[in-house]
Here is the input.
Amino acid sequence: MWKTLGCLVVAMTGTSALLGWMDPSPENSAQVVTDFEIVSLARESVESGFSADIDVGQWHEVEIAPVVRRPIADSLLAARRSPLDYHFYVDRSGRPLKTVHWRRQQALTGRPGIIRIEVESPGPGEPNSQAQQFCVAQLVDTLAGFLHIERDSLAVHWPDVWEPQSASHTPVAAVP
Here is the structure.
């Protein structure tokens, strides 16, 4: 019996190692999101699912902030200690997620009138992906239309490390 169990363990370990070696995909590969899907997700995030009255006049600025993703255990502990400090979150693949602050049209503590978009960053000082930059540009454009503000008139605060990939994503205001 022990001989059979030993052979089974060796066979399973060897097969697992072989399959891991043969798999060409990276361990944390993100699914590719098309530009059309990003535009659709950005519109859906901004314009739907409200649980409060909408006062478009209360919003006048957008702040984009890169954040380094923490391990899941740290994120859960941090979430229990402090409330969310943003309205939208853009993950590494460029998908926007809205928070309860946007659904309820709540201003952040001590920051009235500012819509905050957090963008997941691979690490300090590393550039964001083209999909993320496109998503943030679409969120800003959709927010400007939703708030009935000219795109060039909406005050947008971009992070210092932001590097737009094309002229259509050029920041209108830079963080000092």
User: Anything to note?
Assistant: Residues 72-76, 164-176 have pLDDT under 50 and may be disordered. DSSP finds five helices and five strands in the chain. The radius of gyration is 21 Å.
